[in-house]
């Protein structure tokens, strides 16, 4: 998904931040905080997908498999 964020400009940087912080929280053993960060990332992905529905296939799959779609 990192490559897809580049297509989304400044919001892509937010997505990376949210995703990275979620992964960091997982490494620190805080799944509740991780879920909150991933939920933030999901909201941005949903906006990006709504703007360009044919793009961001990886993100669409991530939303589906994580139950965030």
UniProtKB/TrEMBL annotation:
Protein name per UniProt? Photosystem I assembly protein Ycf3
**Top-rank lineage group of the source organism:** Eukaryota
């Amino acid at each position: 998904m990192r490559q897809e964020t580049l297509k989304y400009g400044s919001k892509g940087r937010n997505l990376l931040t949210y995703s990275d912080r979620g992964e960091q929280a997982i490494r620190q053993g805080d799944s509740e905080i991780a879920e909150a960060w991933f939920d933030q990332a999901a909201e941005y992905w949903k906006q990006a997908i709504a703007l360009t529905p044919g793009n961001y296939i990886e993100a669409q799959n991530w939303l589906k498999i994580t139950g965030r779609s």
